[in-house]
Amino acid sequence: MSRINVVTNDNANPEQAALFEAINGKIGMVPNFLRVLANSPVALEAFLGLHRIASEGVLDEQTRERIALTVAQENGCQYCVSAHTAIGRKAGLDNAEIAANRTGTSQDEKAAAAVSFAHTVVEHKGQVSAAELLAIRNAGYSEAEIVEIITHVGMNVLTNFIGTISQVEIDFPAVELKLAA
Fold this sequence. Notes:
Radius of gyration: 16 Å
Oligomer: single chain
Strand content: under 5%
């Protein structure tokens, strides 16, 4: 049971209901973590705006999902690991790639640099070294892509915190946080 109210279609006010209708129209459902965010329609609108902007950037969908997986695993958010496993599969990531992403790497050489950098940003709370920045640049990432990686880390930290603090019910196929050996 969620430790923070989950706004349902039945108890949504008109502003929340309109947001839910828009979300449902885009993705065919309203994930539970967004129903928690809807307690503050302003917070939900801010997240949706950031998500929209971040999705229109130069990073491809698979890279964005790889980042989400490593950040969720590092932050211990089962909700987000479960959600991004499902979304990542839909984006074309296979089980081996998802497992690699959850450990902070990738089977794809260039993507491995992005995932490793994202993992480092989370693990060291933004305190990355000049060598770590040089490594991501040497892997072929532009300044715009580096900024987008950092943006995706921040956006995913927000959703990880919503998921772990609220302990909202997972509405995707559940994935255990512990990786198989």
